[in-house]
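ugh ok so i messed up the first submission bc i forgot one of the chains. this is the corrected input, ALL of the components this time, i swear. 223 residues overall. if the numbers dont match what u have on ur side tell me asap before i send this to the collaborators (the ones from the other lab, u know who)
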Amino acid sequence: MENDWDKAISSLSKINVFSNPNNEPVTISGEADDLKCIGVGTDAAVFQSLSAPTYAFKIYAKDKIHKVKIEANVYQILEGSPFFSTCFASYDEFLVLSYEEGPTLFDCILQGIHIPEQVVNEVEDAREYVRNKGLNPRDIHLKNILLQNGRAKIIDVSEYTLQGNDFRWEHFKKGYEQYYHLIDGNPVPLWLVEKIRKRYNQRGKNASYEEFTKNILKLLYKN
Ligand SMILES: Nc1ncnc2c1ncn2[C@@H]1O[C@H](COP(=O)(O)OP(=O)(O)O)[C@@H](O)[C@H]1O
Ligand SMILES: [Mg+2]
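and heres the new structure output, hopefully the right one now
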């Protein structure tokens, strides 16, 4: 059977993706004129093809390709929900997803784009939907949520078959409720966002939300 993304496949095979230590984003090698990199994560790089622009191709790093089938399977279970992108097909190294427009919430913070409360409420609804499907809504952070016409779109479902709560979403939600009004509409400089992100990832295993925010407030007053 022919698919309208077939045109992109030969270009995609020219790209190689490698993972990095310490939760840093992947590295890409190779290039193709008709491919544009639209995002990187810690497992994969995502491309859009000029010849099939309605799709997003998520190419996994060499040592992470076992996750391709896992994520495809999660998408199959979640199928039909407007909160997630659609997965059309899976190959050895990549997934064919619907291309989703809109800035990530991370971009919103950097650019001072208002994040409406509706987005937060919709992510809550999406998490409930995931749980009702017998999956675990994990790894829900600012780079995995898009703001799309005032609504939420979650774009990375690869960890939903894992156990445990990483509390990333709960912490963001609390922070949003407590502090968002202080930065709403104002761009936050990248160096500061990165500093906070790194502190968050390095926080002690048992550090509470309160301890973390106390540390960040100290950091802010120092600057
Ligand atoms: N369907 C999509 N449409 C548009 N952009 C996407 C899509 N999927 C991912 N992206 C972009 O690529 C980035 C990395 O994708 P992601 O699935 O989160 O990879 P990882 O599993 O490595 O974290 C995202 O943060 C986002 O910017
Ligand atoms: Mg991600």
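quick check: The first helix runs from residue 6 to 12. that seems consistent at least. The pocket of magnesium ion (ligand 2) is lined by residues 41, 143-144, 156 (CB under 6 Å).
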